[in-house]
Design goal:
Structural class: alpha/beta
CATH topology: Rossmann fold
Number of domains: 1
Protein name: Methyltransferase
Number of strands: 9
Number of helices: 9
Order of helices and strands: HHEHEHHHHEEHEEEHEE
Mean pLDDT: 91
Pfam families: NNMT_PNMT_TEMT
Keywords: Methyltransferase, S-adenosyl-L-methionine, Transferase
CATH class: Alpha Beta
Radius of gyration: 17 Å
CATH architecture: 3-Layer(aba) Sandwich
Shape: globular
CATH superfamily: Vaccinia Virus protein VP39
Low-confidence stretches: 1-6
Helix content: 25-40%
InterPro entries: NNMT_TEMT_trans, SAM-dependent_MTases_sf
GO molecular function: methyltransferase activity
Largest sheet: 7 strands, mixed
Length: about 260
């Protein structure tokens, strides 16, 4: 059952994000390309390729909200972006991301390789690090502070963030809203969620999660997204204990939600 707001909820502001260990997190989750991430990469790659093939346009600005210690959402946006903002709250993760901009670690090559199965990525050349260095910058900030940037970015990603920062359902939905409101009308987006997560470790420290499934993800998107899909991954392999699967959502920012008050 989804955990709704309650007096004993652990809120995002109460979490010690400085204790997040990005090195341990990358080692556990991204040292090798796991089946779940390969499936995600194929889905979002095809979504972005399809969008820009039909709509044209570019170069554009992109944002990865709550980038954490994960580079592959930025890599997925890179062919079409003149700038990509890695927006992250944890000082430890900000430091990790900054260390990757000039020349990211070799473990990320396998993720780029999965993307390069489509020529839109392969056409960037043998080593994408030069382009990554040129277009990517890191910005420290709170997801909930994105309200001041409404409509700024032309494409966006948010991976394992809104449900992985709080136990509070209202904060989860507000996090999704903040992400989508930061995108321009018609912007393509992709987001991923841990299904029914009970929380997780990043190194020695435990971090909270909000228990959500496909219906909650879909409900959080409906007011701000159009023509979107919510898809549970086919892969059943578990990258850690304490969740039941992964969910990917992708689509486009609505052209208007003027009747919805900003929270």
């Amino acid at each position: 059952m989804t955990q709704r707001s309650s007096g004993d909820a652990q809120l995002n502001a109460q979490v010690h994000w400085a204790e997040f260990d990005p090195i341990a997190y990358v080692q556990h989750n991204y040292s090798v390309l796991q089946a779940e991430d390969a499936e995600i990469l194929h889905l979002i790659r095809d979504h972005f390729v399809d969008h820009f093939r039909k709509q044209g346009g570019g170069p554009v600005s992109g944002i990865d909200v709550g980038a954490g210690a994960n580079l592959y959402p930025a890599l997925a946006m890179m062919p079409w972006c003149e700038e990509i903002t890695l927006f992250e709250r944890s000082p430890a993760n900000v430091k990790y991301l900054a260390s990757q901009v000039d020349a990211y670690d070799t473990n990320w090559d396998q993720f780029w390789g999965a993307l390069c199965e489509h020529e839109a990525y392969g056409s960037l050349g043998a080593d994408p690090r030069e382009r990554f260095r040129k277009v990517v910058h890191v910005e420290e900030g709170d997801l909930f502070g994105l309200a001041r940037y409404e409509g700024r970015w032309s494409m966006g990603t948010m991976f394992f963030v809104a449900e992985s920062m709080t136990t509070d359902y209202d904060e989860f939905t507000l996090g999704v809203e903040r992400f989508l409101r930061a995108l321009a009308p018609g912007a393509p987006f992709a987001a991923a969620f841990m299904e029914h997560s009970k929380g997780y470790h990043a190194g020695e420290h435990f971090f909270p999660a909000c228990d959500v499934g496909e219906s909650e993800v879909r409900a959080s998107l409906e007011a701000f997204a159009r023509d979107f899909k919510v898809q549970r991954l086919e892969s059943e392999a578990e990258v850690r204990d304490g969740y039941s699967g992964m969910i990917v959502a992708y689509g486009w920012r609505r052209n208007s939600d003027a009747d919805i008050p900003i929270r």
